[in-house]
Each structure stands twice: as structure tokens, then as C-alpha cells.
Amino acid sequence: MNTQLIGATSLLSTRLSYGCWRLVGTWNPKEVTPDRIVQGKRAVVVAYEAGYTLFDNADIYCHGICESVFGDAMKEVPGMRERILIATKCGIRFPGEPNPDSPPRYDFSVEHILRSCEQSLKRMKIETIDLYQLHRPDVLMNPEEVAGAFETLRKQGKAREFGVSNFLPSFVETLQEFCPMPLAVNQVEIHLGRLDCFDDGTLDQCIRRNITPMAWSPLGGGWLGSDGKVDPKDPRASVKTKLLETLDQTATKYGVSRTIISLAWLLKHPGKIVPIVGSINPERIREAVKADAIDLSREDWYRIYTAARGKPLP
Ligand code: NAP
Questions:
Q1: 219: which residues sit within 8 A by CB, 6+ positions away?
Q2: Whole-model pTM?
Q3: 136 CA to middle of ligand 1, Å?
Q4: Which is the closest atom of ligand 1 to the Cα of 278?
Q5: Is 227 in the pocket of ligand 1 (CB under 6 A)?
Q6: Which atom of ligand 1 is closest in space to residue 187's alpha carbon?
Q7: Residue 2: Cβ within 10 Å count
Q8: Which DSSP letter does residue 165 get?
Q9: Separation of 87 CA from ligand 1 center, angstroms?
Q10: What b/e readout covers 208-241, taking b as 16+ CB neighbours within 10 angstroms?
Q11: CA distance 110 to 195
């Protein structure tokens, strides 16, 4: 796969990243079976062998189990740690912690950031996180405090670079104003069913400030993939069905699958979007890599964009 620098850092990543959210197929630790762990570890190794070099995780994915499974898989592959970049996130807190009546919330306090980082390092059995991200904007964010936490983690060698996720441009600007280091990524939902980033200033800001946009759920959670289906009860079912037809026609023209066209569509953007592939199916993990070799024409890109909008261009 081709590579690119992440933001204004020296982190060199492949154009596609691999996401660990679904590694064990559930959010509920009680549903994690030995078979699911084996399947998750296998997916990590398959992604590594297929060439992905940026692995995305979060402290909350299956309450930390995805980080542990990822760390265990990596331990079994000699040299893997040195050849990849590890990204993870903090800042979301589950209800019931630390007290039974604690509500779900976001927490960018220095104590929570430092503690969460420590726990992620332990679970993944590593010394340093390459890219540490704030998961969702905390309305109570004190940007000075966050900047201080980032500096401490960097000084301690626990995190190299920092980024955000699901941040609107104004929130990025505010945090960046206080951070001594440039924010490297904004990880946001971008796919053909979610076009907000093209209009809300997110991608413009990424280009202007050299922040790498990472696209989560690049296949919309699966429905844009080759075997994906549109839920007939979806209020946008007719738009989505037409979009899939357009993708299938384009796929035939380029001799690849619908999955590849959906990913290649994201890769075409000049903001250098890094889609995060979320499948745990070995064939699909390997197949996604082909998107890097497809350069859609402007005509085909706009045909797909217009179908996804469900209305003509202004
Ligand atoms: P996705 O690639 O849009 O969706 C993956 C899902 O689609 C899997 O369930 C997969 O099933 C299915 N799928 C893949 N190819 C398919 C095909 N050809 N036909 C039918 N189904 C198909 O990505 P995602 O898993 O939703 O998200 C990717 C990553 O983004 C996560 O792992 C995480 O790292 C990140 N993320 C971040 C946030 C955030 O707030 N920052 C939120 C969500 C996700 P199989 O496994 O069976 O292939």
C-alpha cells in the first residue's frame, strides 16, 4: 500500500488503517468467548500481513478487551510492534463508573486522560502509544488542562502524537490554540451515507491545518460493502438503493467490487482521508487494500457524490 504522513508529524501510515472496534464482535465483555478472541487476534494478524500499518483502538472498545486482544495478537508476531503505528482513544466514560449512579459522560480531565493512557498501555503491553486521540468532544473541556496532559504524556514517553475525534472545526481551533504540538488527526464519520464533513468545514480545516482526516465506518458499518443491503424501513432507502446501483455500475467499469469503489471514493479527496477498515473477515480485510490502486475519475467521483446526496448539484 502507498503511505502518507499523518498530519504534520513524522508518523508514516499506509493509506488505509485497520480498526479494532469490532475485534470481538460485541460491546459486552460477558459475551466474549475464546472463539471470538481467536477470531479477533487472527484479524489483527491478517491486517498486519496484508500491509496495514496504522491500527486504531479505544479504551472503551468492549471495555478494554479489544486493546488486550490486539496487544496479545501483536505479541505473537515478532517485529510487529516496530513496524506499525498504534492509535487509541480516551475520554468517554461508561455509566456506573466509578459509582453505580454515575451517568454516561465525556471526561477530558487531566486525571482521566493520564489514567486512561496508563491502562491502555498496560492492556496493549506496550511502552508508547503513537497516536493518542480524544474520542468525543467533552463540553467541559479545559483546553489548557488537556494541553498539559498531552505534554506530560509526551515527556513521559507514553504518547508520541495527539489527535481528536468527532470534533467540529471550532472545537479543534480552541484546543489547538492551547496545544504546543500540532493536532495530527480528526477521526470523524465519513462515508457515502454521511457527507457532513464535506460541508461543515471539517475537511477544509484538515487541509488548511495539515490535520489528517481519518474516516470511521467508511462502509457505513457495512451497508456500502459488496454484500451490504439497504434497510427498506430506512427513510433514505430509495436514495441509498440508487447509490448502490451507481456504485455497482462503477465497480463493473473498474473491474473491482463495490467495497473497493466506496473506499477509493474516500481516498480520492485531496485532504488525504485515511479510511479505517473495520471488517474482521480475513478476505474482506485483504480485499480492501485494492482500493489504494484505484484512481476514480472526477466524472465517476461526482456521479457517486450526486447519487449519495440524493439531489442534483446546486
Ligand atoms: P465499516 O468498514 O464501515 O464497517 C465494518 C462492518 O461492515 C463489519 O461489521 C463488517 O462485517 C461489515 N462489512 C465489511 N465489508 C462488508 C461487505 N463487503 N458486505 C457486508 N458487510 C461488510 O467500519 P466500522 O467497523 O464501523 O468502523 C471502522 C473503525 O472505525 C472501527 O474499528 C474503529 O476503529 C473506528 N470507529 C471510530 C469511531 C469514533 O467515534 N472515533 C466510531 C466508530 C468506529 P465483517 O466483519 O463480517 O466483514
A1: 191, 225, 228, 259, 262, 263, 278
A2: 0.98
A3: 18
A4: 25
A5: yes
A6: 41
A7: 9
A8: E
A9: 16
A10: ebbbbbbbbbbbbeebbbbebebeeeeeeeebbe
A11: 33
Give me the residue label for grid cell 477470531: 39
The closest of 248, 272, 269, 271 to 260, measured between CA atoms, is: 248
Please give the grid coordinates belonging to residue 198. 464535506
Q: How confident is the model at residue 29 (pLDDT cuts 50, 70, 90)?
A: very high
Single out the residue of 47, 57, 52, 49 nearest to residue 22, CA to CA: 57
Q: What is the pLDDT of residues 44-64, one digit of tens each?
A: 999 999 999 999 999 999 999
Nearest protein CA to atom 35 of ligand 1, as residue? 216
What percent of the chain has pLDDT above 90?
Answer: 99
CB of 143 sitting under 6 A from ligand 1: no
Which residues make Cβ contacts (< 8 Å) with residue 174, sequence separation at least 6? 141, 143
Contacts by 200-203, CB closer than 8 A, 24 or more apart? 200/168, 200/169, 201/168, 201/169, 202/168, 202/169, 203/269, 203/271, 203/273
